[in-house]
């Protein structure tokens, strides 16, 4: 018995490998989506966008919507943080208020995207990728807007008190950037990359090709490898495609006495042998069709 051999088309192998790799990339995309939501939330909450330097007179650090001052007339070890997220009037600069609104929208959209990952269990992956891709673009746009608008409010008096009178729009004066501002920039770029990846996964998503019919019917020795090609027409060389009927050859029974050649002429003596049988006179080999 020959072992079963499966013949798989090259397109079948490509589709299988692509779907497998697409699932792996999709899992990584979901992990980085969650990481993006965490990064953008940390950047929005932390008051570490800009801060004082060694030349600043009044040490302080400023976030998107809150400001923390050190040594507010009591002790240099006491930190006084001002600004409330639920009260935008506590933010002294109009430009920083606008940046806060866009930053909050970006964080909200990032959280919505994380929740929408659950839709993979009930909707087609193509639809979910498209929706999340557009939401990533909106979230990245809002975060980039907050990053660009925030420096316009650097001419505010509460920032000039720490950064000096030279501080104005897009000029920090005696202050410097902190890690949260750079983290916000990275988050914006990350969201654009995730959106592009989501669109690629959505538009290039293919289904697994059906298994060829001959993959489960062929066995070893049933097809001539010289006729095997990429098209199904090459299967004409297989034994199953030809309507052949096997024939069994039956040899003449062994006779020890009075044997004669099949190619010799009949004589009277040969017909009178003891082992002579009339039924074997016509032919020594009979073909039986199965």
Summarize the structure.
This protein is α+β, with helices and mostly antiparallel strands and about 290 residues long. It is about 40% helix and about 10% strand.
What does this structure look like?
- The chain is α+β, with helices and mostly antiparallel strands and 290 residues long.
- The protein folds into two domains: 189 residues, Up-down Bundle (Butyryl-CoA Dehydrogenase, subunit A, domain 3), CATH 1.20.140.150; 49 residues, no CATH class.
- It is built from six helices and seven strands, in the order H-E-E-E-E-H-H-H-E-H-E-H-E.
- The strands form two sheets. A five-stranded antiparallel beta sheet has the order 4-3-2-1-5. A two-stranded antiparallel sheet has the order 6-7.
- Strand 2 and strand 3 form a beta hairpin.
- Helix 1 packs antiparallel against helix 5 and helix 3 packs antiparallel against helix 5.
- The longest helix is centred in the first third of the chain and has 36 residues.
- The protein is elongated and about 70 Å long.
- The N terminus is likely disordered.
- Keywords: Membrane, Transmembrane, Transmembrane helix.
- It is a multi-pass membrane protein.
- This is Lipoma HMGIC fusion partner-like protein.
- It comes from Cinara cedri.
- Its main location: membrane.
């Amino acid at each position: 018995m020959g072992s079963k051999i499966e013949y798989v088309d090259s397109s079948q192998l490509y589709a299988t490998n692509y779907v497998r790799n697409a699932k792996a990339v999709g899992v990584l995309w979901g992990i980085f989506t969650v990481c993006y939501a965490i990064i953008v939330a940390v950047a929005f909450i932390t008051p570490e966008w800009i801060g004082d330097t060694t030349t600043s007179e009044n040490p302080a650090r400023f976030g998107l919507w809150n400001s923390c001052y050190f040594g507010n007339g009591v002790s240099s070890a006491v930190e006084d943080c001002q600004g409330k997220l639920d009260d935008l009037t506590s933010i002294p600069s109009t430009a920083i208020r606008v940046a806060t609104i866009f930053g909050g929208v970006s964080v909200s959209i990032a959280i919505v995207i994380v929740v929408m990952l659950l839709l993979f269990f009930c909707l087609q992956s193509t639809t979910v990728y498209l929706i999340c891709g557009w939401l990533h673009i909106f979230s990245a746009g809002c975060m980039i807007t907050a990053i660009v608008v925030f420096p316009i409010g650097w001419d505010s008096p509460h920032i000039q008190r720490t950064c000096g009178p030279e501080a104005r729009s897009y000029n920090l004066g005696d202050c410097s950037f902190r890690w949260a501002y750079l983290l916000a920039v990275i988050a914006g770029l990350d969201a654009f990359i995730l959106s592009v990846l989501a669109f690629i996964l959505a538009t290039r998503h293919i289904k697994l090709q059906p298994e060829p019919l001959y993959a489960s019917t062929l066995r070893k020795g049933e097809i001539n490898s010289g006729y095997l090609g990429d098209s199904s027409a090459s299967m004409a060389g297989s034994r199953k495609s030809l309507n052949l009927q096997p024939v069994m050859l039956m040899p003449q029974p062994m006779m020890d006495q009075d044997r004669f050649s099949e190619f010799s002429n009949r004589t009277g003596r040969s017909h009178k042998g003891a082992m002579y049988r009339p039924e074997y006179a016509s032919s020594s080999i009979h073909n039986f069709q199965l």
